[in-house]
Amino acid sequence: MSLLPPGSRQPALLQTVRMRDPVHYFAALRRRYGPVFRMKLIGFPPQVVVSTAELAAEIYSTDGDGNRAGALRAGYVPWLGDYSLFTNDGEPWWRHRKLLSPALHGRSIASYPELIAEIAAEDIRTWPLGRPFALQEHMQAITLEITLRLVFGIRDVTQLARLRALLLTLSKASGSPLLFLMPARLRAWAEKSPLAMRIPVLPTTRTMRASAAVDEILFAEIARRRDEEDSGATDVLGRLLQARDDQGRSMSDQEIRDELLTLLEAGLETTATGLSWAFERLMRSPAYCGGCGRSWSGARTTATSKRSSRRCCGCAR
């Protein structure tokens, strides 16, 4: 008897295609099978989805040694490395969480809002006036710039430009639907084999080439910062270089690299998409949008998300 909950019996290919519209597909599965259901996508084992806040909270509070979430996630984001919080479990996961937490604590990032506001203002000045435009791309640009300056701490203009382009390539390539259509064994080989990087038709090639180029920049930056021994650094990279575990051990270059990319993976698309949806919701709520207009001192920018061409009723005036 299967321990998995009920779910769609459609072929994995069809279920994967239906994930092009995940919100409506998940809603349909929930209506038919209840708050917990099973699904099967190409390239992955059967997956169980929970759709209530209570069940999600229970999963997040489960003992990390028992659910092996890291081992399961490793197949999704292999370029994050072996030391990522996303791909670890048990004692290694707890060690890295303790090492990262101080760098992301409220007191450590208290000086960030001013620079974040400056970065946002720089991008907002490029927004067109008087016509709809895709907001998500701008939210992604703002989020990436914040990551480059406050997380990676890159200051060199040339390296900033190169890393900016590479990280966008890596983010887009790693989310390509073609990756998920690859058979699991072929994908596992392609993501580990140097030979596979020479085969341009493989969906993994672009991801792994971008990852290798990003590594070259990050390891050079980590080495440079170690030589400087700047104990007063306020960016996340600088704080990770100073971090020590309970035994007084520092993080290796590879550990720091993996966690920097983990922060990118955790924060880039999620933050950009969340901000875009926030604006989309505001555009549909005149009362709330008008309040934002007053809070933002009469901002005069018209913006739309990709999925809406509505004029933001209050804050666009």
TrEMBL record:
Pfam families: p450 (PF00067). SUPFAM superfamilies: Cytochrome P450. It comes from the Bacteria. GO terms for molecular function: heme binding; iron ion binding; monooxygenase activity; oxidoreductase activity, acting on paired donors, with incorporation or reduction of molecular oxygen. Coiled coil: none annotated. Belongs to the cytochrome P450 family. This is Cytochrome P450.
